[in-house]
Structure formats: C-alpha cells, structure tokens
From TrEMBL:
Species of the source: Deinococcus aquiradiocola
Protein name per Swiss-Prot or TrEMBL: Uncharacterized protein
Keyword tags: Membrane, Signal, Transmembrane, Transmembrane helix
Leader peptide range in chain numbering: 1-26
Transmembrane segments: 36-59, 80-102, 114-132, 152-171, 183-203
Length: 213
C-alpha cells in the first residue's frame, strides 16, 4: 500500500531492483564481444557495485538514521563515484558525442542532438545525485540538501524515461538493436525511472514526517 510509512521500503526495493537490472545488463553484455562492448561491460559492473554500496546508506537515511563521515561504505562511495562517472563520460564522448559530431551514422540532426543531450545530461545528473547524497546523508536535517536531492531525483527519472523512449523508438540510421537488447535496456530504463520517483517520494514523505503541517 502506498503510504508514507511504506515509502522507505518501496524506495529501497526500487533501488535494489535497479541494481539487479544493471547486473542483468552486464550479464547480457558478456554474450557479445569486441572492445566497443567490453567497455560498456566494465561500466555496467562498476555502476552495479557503486549502486549496491550506495543503496544501504540511503536506506539508513530514509529510515531516520544518520551516516557518519567515517562510515566505510560512505568512504567507498565517495571515492568510487567520481571515477565511475568519469568513465561513463568518456564512453559517452567516444561512442555518442564524437560519432554524432562526425556524422558517422546518417541520423536526423535534431534526433541525434536529442540522443546526445539526453545521455549526456543523464551522466551529469548521476554525478550530482551522488555528490549531493553523500553530503546529505551525514546531515539529513539539511532541508536545502534534501531539496536538491529531490530535484535531481525528479530530473533523473525524467531522463531515464526519455532514454526508454529512445530505446523503444531508435533513431533512423543507427545500427539496429536485437529484440532482446531493446527489451533489456528499455526495462532497465523504466526501472531506473521508477526507482528515482520512489526515492523522491520517500524523501518528501520523510520531510513531512519530520515537519508536519
């Protein structure tokens, strides 16, 4: 039942389901070969590990706890996320931005710009989500920090939904995806969008509980 008391549990379930979807994508990627596919595999594995470390920390905060600055999990997340996001940015530059600029694929310029923008902004939003969350979790009473995290969760959900649409309706001129690839990536994007919305709801529910009207 969707109530404020169940918000933390549902948000955590969404985050763990998202981690499972990333692991499934990583497993699927191993069935292919080539440098252009192994690099995304490294990204998927790193992203899965990072999310698996981050989720318990957010769970602690959503249930009213506080994460110490010396917490080993928080330290690991703080050290890992800049490298993971930087790697994602590098892949975006090599396999999305540069091919679009060079006109490698005969794609409509407007559609190509949408693809480049959605994926690029998505990486930036992921960086902000980790940046603000590792700060917020040591001081959950910080209303400004909570508001920033709520905003970024909302934006991340919208971008994930947009990416799902782009996967279902691929750009003309791009290499065709298999049905399995479309289903897996679209499913992962939908799960990501839902997990961000559930996290946003949990953060807002916690704020209302702490400061009832």
């Amino acid at each position: 039942m969707l109530t404020p008391s169940t918000a933390p549990t549902l948000a955590l379930a969404g985050l763990w389901l998202r981690a499972a979807s990333l692991a499934a994508l990583a497993a699927y990627t191993t069935t292919n070969s080539g440098l252009g596919l192994w690099l995304p595999l490294v990204d998927l594995v790193a992203s899965t590990v990072l999310l698996a470390l981050w989720t318990p920390l957010m769970g602690r905060v959503l249930r009213g706890g506080v994460v110490l600055t010396t917490d080993p999990l928080r330290t690991a997340v703080s050290m890992l996320y800049p490298w993971v996001i930087a790697f994602e940015g590098t892949l975006w530059l090599l396999f999305t931005f540069l091919p679009a600029v060079a006109g490698v694929y005969p794609v409509n310029p407007v559609a190509s710009t949408v693809q480049v923008t959605v994926s690029g902004v998505g990486i930036l939003v992921s960086f902000l989500a980790y940046l603000w969350s590792v700060r917020f979790m040591v001081n959950p009473a910080d209303t400004a920090g909570r508001s920033s995290l709520v905003d970024v969760a909302n934006l991340a959900a919208a971008l994930a939904a947009a990416q799902a649409v782009l996967t279902v309706v691929p750009l003309g001129g791009m290499p065709a995806q298999t049905l399995a690839s479309q289903v897996l990536y679209t499913g992962a994007n939908v799960i990501e969008a839902a997990s961000w919305l559930l996290l946003r709801w949990a953060l807002l529910s916690a704020a209302r509980t702490e400061r009832p009207d």
